[in-house]
Structures are given as C-alpha cells and as structure tokens.
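Below is how a single chain appears once it has passed through the pipeline. First comes the sequence as given, then the structure the pipeline wrote out for it. We keep one example in the README because the format questions we get most often are answered faster by looking than by reading.
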Amino acid sequence: MFKRITSLIAAIAMLAGTFMPVSTFAATTSSFNPGTLIKGSGQAVYYFAENGKRYVFQNEKTYFTWYNDFSKVVQIPDTLLYAIPIGGNVTYRPGKKMVKITTDPKVYVVDEGGYLRHVTTEQLAQTFYNINWKNQVDDVPDAFFTNYKTGNAITTAAEYSPANVMTNTTTISKDKGFDELMAAVSIGNTMTGFVPSSMTVKKGTTVTWTNQDSATHSVKSDGFQSENLSYNQSYSHTFNATGSFQYNCGLHPSMVGTINVQ
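Resulting structure:
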C-alpha cells in the first residue's frame, strides 16, 4: 500500500493542488516572508518555507487542517512563483484528523513529521476522537499517501495524544522541521529579480541566495558580497544586527532586494 509510485505520477500529484476557490486578493506583491501562503493566477495555494521552496496543498481537506480560511493568502506574479522551486506537498496537520487510503480500510492518525500510525482498535479511535470518530476520518487518494511515512502502529492510548501533537506542530515549518532562523531567496532573471524582493526575518537569521537562472548573478551590499554565482550555486549571510539591508546583483544593478531584520 505504501509502495512509491513512479516519479512522474508523484510529480503530477504534487502539482494537483488546483482546488482553491479563492477569488479576492489585494494587488500582487513581490514581498513575502517564510511561512507566507502564496499563489499565482491559478487556484493552487503554496506554503513558502524557510528553505526557499514552495509546498503545495493537494486539496481543500489538507488546507483546512491548517487554516480556517483564505485570508492570509497573498498573490504574487506568476513569473515570481515559477522562480521558486517546488519542495513537495503539505501533509495533514498532525492530530487534527485521521486518514485512510481509499483502497484500504485501515485508519491512521497523523503524527509529527508526516508519519502515519495505524489505529489498531475502534476503542482507541474513540479515545482519541470520541464516539463520533468516524466523522474525523478523511479518505486520502492513493497517490497522496506517498507524501507520508509509515510509523509504528498504535496499540495503547498512551502512545498518542492528538492535543499534544497539535501543540507541537502549530506551523507547517515546525511539522517539517525547518529552522526559523533560516531563510532563502531565489535569484531569477533580470525580469524577475530576487524572489522575494523584500523579506522580513529575525535577528540571527541566515539568508541563503540560490541562483535559479542560467545567467551568472551575484549578491552585493555594503556589508556583504558574494562571488559570481552560476546556476544552482548559493551564497549565505547571517544577519546579526537589526535594520534594513538593501542589496543588488553586482552584474545586473537593476536587480535589487531588501532584507529587513527585526
């Protein structure tokens, strides 16, 4: 049941998050931070993570285990969205619901880090989610099960607490184990520039710029400067002082960006 499907099918599943009935947005922006929900002109919504990648919500059910509505989603130009690498899929928030695969009767709880743990008895399911536990079970398509890992089956109530795992995973970043003192910027072409162009981070954060363009670029500021970066090469700088730090590409001065440190 948990065998991996081909990479092509997995890629299709990863991009299948075209479900969001979101219609009203403020003007598009090029400024956003790790943890921001972003979308382009399409319906898919992504989580922008500290590693500079976007993680897609496969469907509404997954989205609503993390958020109550779409009020925090910001729209960015498609050209900027495409400059951000895809990191994978968002999985269910641990503790929020139980899941089962559509072709198998076993019921699972979701544990931290995207682990699925088989609930071995109905009594355990009632202990975790009360007498109406069946209403807390979502069917997950077979293809999406490849996003999860298999954990140990649960045989006693002491082995799992929905409330505790929810407390430990208040954000998608925490569930995926990302460091809040890390951030990343994609270097696009001269039209897209730095993505995001402006970002706000905490003092002590290490920002990594990665060139996603076929042309060579660099990162240049008064306090820091990279070497010339070819495609997929990176440069990092740790911001240990608060303030607003502007920078540009040393080879293409029209490409500018800002890191705001709080």
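Residues 1-18 have pLDDT under 50 and may be disordered.

See the next section for the split statistics.
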